[in-house]
UniProtKB/TrEMBL annotation:
It comes from Brassica cretica. GO terms for biological process: phloem development. Residues 1-36 are annotated as: Disordered. This is Protein SIEVE ELEMENT OCCLUSION B-like. Residues 494-730 form the Sieve element occlusion C-terminal domain. Residues 1-15 have a biased composition (Polar residues). Residues 40-322 form the Sieve element occlusion N-terminal domain.
Length: 743
């Protein structure tokens, strides 16, 4: 940092100028929000200050000296038994530390004494405060900015501390009493002493605050604070001005003390004039506020730079071959001083990352708004998998481990809001798998890495790392939802292999969701799955459909599966209750099952797109596209005979079953129930109502290879247009603004 300040001002020093000698007053630097504004006089003064600045290679241990000085100033009070002073902790008596401190002071004690004498002498001879301040700069020219300030403050502590030491001990120690008399310290005039103490306290406090900020700023690493950022460079350039006004305040304080001791008893009944100290205190407060904001900006800048470096290193780490996964996991879940960064969900004990060594690891990455339905289904799949893999020893021999990685971004919110901490604990409490012990263990650059490389956007993803730490899948959640743990090891090759076994059947649509529906699937049964959010349409459709089945002497089963849009959750719950209460059809009482149904369909769509199967010749893809598109329009239905899907259609199916008696009833004996219904629906109903073109929404979080560049309408086969929209999603008490791509 020092080299940056020196480099800046080296370009600014052009000479004294016509007004260089004018003394700046405390009113010349108006404080402005977010920074300091220098007057033309101060700009000239800045050049003068810089001309005195010629630091050599010597280094001063400013931290140790500053700590000692602060201790002196904190104890320099009116009474030795003053409550504030007596409550201060005593500095350590460690001999090694004392020896080290003496070594530090030995190299600068002469300078401190000289500066103390310089200020004391010139203040007594009536020299101008600015002149004295510039003289101090000349004496301290070979020190860096923070060194100048700390040494000047030490010179002040030398005078100020001696003054109050004599005041505190004059009544207890004859030597102190005699010395106080010789120095004309008004130990008997409490009014005057209180005036000194109260008048200088605020100013001294601001002097210490500014000094601490300057020290902290000057010790910032040059590696990160450079001239590349003009704004940062400009605000740091005010450090010399801060040093000037703090030393100027030191001069004012010593002058006040010397005035009292020099005039002795003539000052006994005179109150200190506090105008100057008050103005200086106000100025230093403004400077401190500016420096504190500068520090905040600098630390943010440093953090961004370090984060960028760490991000590059993390990318490089993932592009390197490893013998196991420990380097990768340690880089992601940074334990720092945390030797046990994981919690075992089954035992609730803290464990080391070694429990994951050379294992396939499934990182369940999410923010704290992960849906309960999603967690519930994932837990069911996980628990069933562990149960199926129990060995004869009673232990589970799972070929992989799951780790929940909670993300809070920005992480400062986690410290700021206890509600987030409570939410984290509530979420992980029932989890049977491993969890990261705190969101604070996931560093900022790791979150950025997850966003860049794995396209994490707060919605849950499941990243699969093989035993060597290689990325087997950037998001295996869609495979989990479709096939469960049968998809292990969750690679693209395994995904393609599983799809080769699948065809568009009712088994694929409802597999693993509901045993009731699954048990319906036999060649003699006709099955309607339907959805929508219009209860009147549902009543008309279900009653008319059941009437056609009864009249045609076929066994028809019906199940309501809700709607894809989670913002309608409460409305769908009420409809589902009405469907069951009125015995309209089968419907899931558990909202999680309804969520799972639609999550599987979306997962099938995403999986096909990632595998490059988003074309018009993939029958599974076309069937999924129809269900998802018709769901956007309102009511829809899927009819199957046993496992074979007969048709997937939109809300016009209600009209088809309603006109049964007047139209296709007569064709049932010859064509059969499904053929007669299908022909009338397509040849008559759709000719009147028309075929609605398709419409799809892709959440922005699906952009990682899941949003195709183009899609064709499954009805008219023309290329669809792409739009972007924003939808406000109300889910219980959670309010999100979601971004979607629409086709």
């Amino acid at each position: 940092m020092e080299s940056l300040i020196k480099s800046q001002h080296a370009q600014q020093v052009t000479g004294h100028g016509s007004r260089a000698g004018k003394t700046p007053t405390t009113e010349m630097v108006p404080a402005t929000t977010g920074g300091l504004t220098m007057s033309s006089d101060e700009s000239m003064m800045l050049k003068l200050i810089q001309q005195t600045h010629s630091p050599d290679a010597r280094e001063v241990q400013v931290r140790g000296i500053l700590s000692l000085v602060e201790d002196i100033l904190d104890r320099a009070t009116l009474d030795s038994d003053d409550s504030n002073a007596s409550m201060l902790p005593l500095p350590t008596e460690d001999k090694l530390m004392q020896s080290s401190m003496m070594s530090v002071l030995d190299s600068v004690s002469y300078v401190i004494d000289r500066v103390a004498c310089e200020i004391a002498y010139k203040s007594l001879t009536g020299s101008d405060a600015h002149e004295i301040t510039m003289s101090v700069f000349e004496h301290l020219s070979s020190f860096h900015w923070h060194g100048k300030l700390v040494l000047a403050l030490a010179a002040f502590a030398l005078n100020y501390g001696e003054f109050w030491l004599l005041v505190q001990f004059h009544s207890k120690n004859q030597l102190a009493k005699s010395l106080a008399m010789l120095k004309l310290v008004p130990v008997q005039n409490r009014v005057t002493l209180e005036s000194v103490s109260h008048g200088l306290n605020d100013l001294i406090r601001e002097m210490k605050s500014v000094t601490a900020c300057v020290v902290e700023l000057c010790e910032l690493p040059d590696r990160y604070i450079t001239l590349d950022d003009p704004h940062l460079s400009r605000i740091i350039s005010t450090i010399p001005i801060a040093v000037y006004w703090t030393i100027r305040s030191i001069v004012a304080c010593i002058s006040q003390i010397n005035m009292i001791t020099a005039m002795g008893h003539e000052m006994m009944n005179t109150q200190m004039d506090s105008w100057e100290t008050s103005m200086l205190a106000n100025k230093l407060k403004n400077i401190h506020d500016h420096l504190a904001e500068t520090l905040r900006l600098c630390y943010r800048h440093i953090e961004m730079k370090r984060s960028s470096e760490s991000l590059k290193m993390l990318h490089s780490l993932f592009d390197t071959t490893h013998i196991d996964n420990m380097k990768i996991l340690t880089a992601l879940i940074h334990p720092k001083n945390h030797s046990t960064p994981l919690q075992d969900g089954s035992t609730k004990r803290k464990v080391h990352l070694d429990v994951l060594r050379r294992k396939t690891v499934l990182l369940l990455i999410s923010d704290l708004n992960i849906l309960e339905d999603e967690l519930s289904i994932f837990e069911q799949i996980y628990t069933e998998s562990r149960r199926n893999l129990l060995g004869i020893d009673g232990k589970s021999h799972m070929p992989y481990e799951v780790v929940w990685v909670p993300i809070v971004d920005p992480i400062e919110d986690y410290e700021r809001y206890p509600s987030l901490q409570n939410k984290f604990e509530a979420l992980r409490e029932p989890m049977p798998w491993y969890t990261v012990d705190s969101p604070k263990l996931i560093e900022r650059h790791v979150v950025e890495f997850m966003r860049e490389r794995w396209h994490f956007m707060n919605k849950p993803i499941l990243v699969v790392l093989d035993p060597q730490g290689n990325e087997a899948s950037l998001n295996a959640l869609h495979m989990i939802w479709i096939w469960g743990t049968e998809a292990f090891p969750f690679t693209r090759t395994r995904e393609e292999e599983l799809w080769r076994r699948e065809t568009l059947t009712l088994n694929l649509i409802v597999d693993g969701i509901d045993s009731v529906i699954f048990n319906w699937i036999n060649p003699e049964n006709y099955i309607f799955l339907y959805g929508g959010d219009d209860l009147d349409w549902i009543r008309r459709f279900t009653m008319a459909a059941k009437a056609t089945a009864k009249d045609s002497s076929v066994k028809l089963e019906m199940a309501y599966v809700g709607k894809r849009n989670h913002s309608h959750r409460e409305q769908i719950r009420r409809i589902s209750e009405a469907v069951r209460a009125e015995n309209l059809s089968h419907s899931w009482a558990e909202p999680a099952l309804m969520w799972f149904f639609w999550a599987r369909l979306e997962s099938m769509l995403y999986s096909k797109i990632q595998l490059g199967k988003a074309d018009d010749h993939d029958e599974v893809m076309q069937g999924i596209k129809k269900i998802l598109s018709y769901d956007k329009l309102g009511g829809w239905a899927l009819l199957s005979k046993g496992p074979e899907i007969v048709m997937i259609t939109h809300g016009a199916i209600e009209r088809t079953v309603t006109v049964y008696d007047r139209t296709w009833k007569t064709h049932v004996p010859t064509k059969g129930y499904t053929k007669a219904m299908y022909d009338h629906h397509h040849d008559e109903i759709l000719r009147e109502t028309g075929k609605p073109c398709s419409h799809f929404d892709f959440h922005i979080t699906a952009r990682s290879g899941r949003i195709p560049e183009k899609m064709n309408c499954f009805e008219c086969h023309r290329s669809m247009e792409k739009y972007m929209s924003f939808a406000c999603c109300h889910d219980d008490k959670l309010l999100d603004q979601d971004e979607n791509y629409n086709f």
